Amino acid sequence: MSSFVRCYQLNSSDYQHLFSSQLIYLFSLFNEYDYTVRLVGGAVRDILLGVTPHDIDLATNATTNEMLKLIQGDSNIELVYTRAEHFGTLTLIVGTTVRKTFQVTTLKRSITRHGKDVAVEFTDDWSIDAKQRDLSINSLSMDEHGIVYDYLNGMDDLKMNRIRFNGNISKRLQENPIRILRYFRFFGRLSTDPHAHDPDVLEGIQQCGITLQDVPGEKIWIELKLILRGRFAGHIMRTILEQRLGPILGLPESLVEMFELENRWLRSMNYQPEPMTLLVTLFNDQEEFDTFCKRAKCSSRHKNLGQFLLDYRYSLQPMRDHDLLYSYKEFLINSHQNQQDIRHQYVIELLKYQGYIYLIDEIKQWSIPTFPIDAWDLQQNGLMSSRSFSYFLRHLKEQWKSSHFQMTKEELIQYGFQSGLFYT
């Protein structure tokens, strides 16, 4: 089957540094048996954007069985069994001393989904495989000589910062519902206008949004994190919620909080707020937060941050004296020593959430001081009393805090004697 294709030759400096000895070995192996293999998807897109890809995914006209025969008995390649073999994808670890992992997928003709059941039909035609991919910018492929194959004008779309689905939008989304969130992620990464969504795309998303209910929570959270860390995060989250996707994602529906999230991102975006710092805006109570955590299956790190923000977003506020951060500092000092470092990071996120941006640099640079005195110091100064040392240390710590953590050990001991504390 013939199909129109545009080919572009890249400069070797644009791609050769990505061709490790392991990747070259893989290409040589496929070529030796007359199979074609190319870099596909995000790897090609990133190369064209001048970004080093995190992962290198490959596609081939070889079937799964042909690939298995190809690597059988090859001591330089280890096959990692996953559940993706059924969908034509093999995970291969290549190399002996230095090892690299690649996913190699047979070209696809179509993907048909019925609820959670997925059927894949394969092909050996690169143009057909390109057309069944979600976006034109993800349909590009590149061979080992740096020739980029463009069947769907993906290069033009990339240059124009345009996010365009291949073919029928609803069909593409139904094939793999996570593409709904992937669209928003790529829009945030590439678009120059946060509001320039194609109305047809948003209509398709509204029609297919319910299919996200079959997507595992872990995949939902991965995409939401990337969206919330990207450009236009506030605007894009507002658009997502306007498409009534919130309940499907485990998020509450509220117009007020939706606008507040956008405003919170605008205030803090230069300080790169954590995804959960922004999302907590949407939660009015513990139940709503728990509902999201259950749906998204977010990690304990993100859940703990969210719980902290939920607990302290109103109760911990700047003091109206010469040290606006005193209440935050006191909170950290009163925390258990093994929790102080992580809570220091939480407090920074809390200031972003609260909008006290002008205080962030100060709290970042502030090192949590150590209370300079202990029971041994009291004994060394001849203190003998019927009271426990914890009584004296508790009162001395309050005095130390009232000095804004400036009093030294000697000054505290002097205070204990002069104030009569040690004689009580």
UniProtKB/TrEMBL annotation:
One of its GO terms (cellular component) is mitochondrion. The keyword ATP-binding does not apply. Residues 38-164 form the Poly A polymerase head domain. GO terms for molecular function: metal ion binding; nucleotidyltransferase activity; tRNA binding. It holds the Pfam family PolyA_pol. Belongs to the tRNA nucleotidyltransferase/poly(A) polymerase family. This is Poly A polymerase head domain-containing protein. It comes from Rotaria socialis.
